[in-house]
């Protein structure tokens, strides 16, 4: 990938210089009614994520990983506790205001790509920019730049079904970064890919993180986790211990 971001050392410098906190969670809980009691998917989750972080969330199935990722992505409102994202008090925002913060700052990558089947690669990449109110005339320059960076210019008029799984995920990552988000949330981003394709996606994340983008990924893969700076383990909705450094 031909990246126009800052040099890899800049993120490390920022890290060393105690960068600003991007995310601060305090006592976040999410529960579901279960008969006469409640089932807790997240228990008193408190977490600080500095800007420039590359964090992995691991844990057994049902531990609350996806719940936490969706909550961080502001897709979910049925939780209690406090959530600051930069200067925004997310716990106080209504759904519309949350959507504005999300569209301005967060890109998503899912296991099953979630590209829009009826849109071409080019059109898929335009979607996040339309949410951001980027004018049509300005969009093409931004989309063409990302197509170029991800070396997928030749695929721009194809539909997702005409691409391999690895290519679709490449487009999904391109779509996640097209609006220059501060944060990328990835849920098992290589779960459907062969190891070589998975490596390509993880190398891409590494480069984006080196350029300053904060990344939080959920994965079962130790190889994927080794790309991150910290690993946080969840079990039964609880953070197990302080996040550790992988490897
Ligand atoms: P993970 O991603 O770690 O596999 P999830 O975050 O998907 O786990 O789920 C955490 C727990 O919350 C699971 O036990 C799951 O069954 C439960 N859960 C998730 N969504 C709902 C729901 N809508 N109603 C009831 N329980 C739910």
Notes on the structure:
- 38% of the residues are buried.
- The chain is of the alpha/beta class.
- It is built from eight helices and ten strands.
- It has a domain at 9-19 and 54-74 and 103-239: P-loop containing nucleotide triphosphate hydrolases (Rossmann fold, 3-Layer(aba) Sandwich).
- 34% of the residues lie in helices and 26% in strands.
- Bound molecules: adenosine-5'-diphosphate.
- Residues 32, 39, 41, 59, 61-67 line the site of adenosine-5'-diphosphate.
Unique ligands: adenosine-5'-diphosphate
Instruction: Supply the CATH architecture of the domain at 9-19 and 54-74 and 103-239.
Output: 3-Layer(aba) Sandwich
Taking Cα atoms only, what radius of gyration do you get, to the nearest Å? Answer: 18 Å
Question: What's the count of strands?
Answer: 10
CATH topology name of the domain at 9-19 and 54-74 and 103-239: Rossmann fold
Q: What is the residue-averaged pLDDT?
A: 89
> CATH superfamily of the domain at 9-19 and 54-74 and 103-239, called what?
P-loop containing nucleotide triphosphate hydrolases
Shape by Cα distribution: globular
* Termini separation: 26 Å
| The first-level CATH class name of the domain at 9-19 and 54-74 and 103-239 | Alpha Beta
The chain-level structural class is: alpha/beta
